[in-house]
Sequence to fold (134 residues):
Amino acid sequence: MAFLNKADLATTITLNELNNLADDLIISLCCDAAVGEMKLYLYEAYETDAIFNQTEHARNMMLLKIGADIAVYLIASAKQAGVDMDDRRKRYDRAVTILKQLKNTELYSELPRRQIAVQSVVEILSNPKRNNSF
Fold:
């Protein structure tokens, strides 16, 4: 089961409005694209595999809301090209801003952090000195 699905989008858009916008295939593709975009922002600092492999009630609700905003924006922009979508765009921008802030801080400690191996010894070598005479 995917981290984000059609039922999770009900926090951002009504299911009736969602069904009028797109079919299940496009909705599924946009949900996967939203999860992929969230992984791009969080990969450096967090264990994305552990976060996004969770299902049902183990999922982080804040990330579900952010993913729903991104997915609905992707669906609406794919199906309503050229239509004024200020509200959707603002929600998308807000979601991306939160993801950028989340990457750079330890604000949400319940998300598993990525362990970074630190190399303690750095060895710098060069070629042996040559004495050239001209």
User: Anything to note?
Assistant: Residues 24-42 form the longest helix (19 residues).
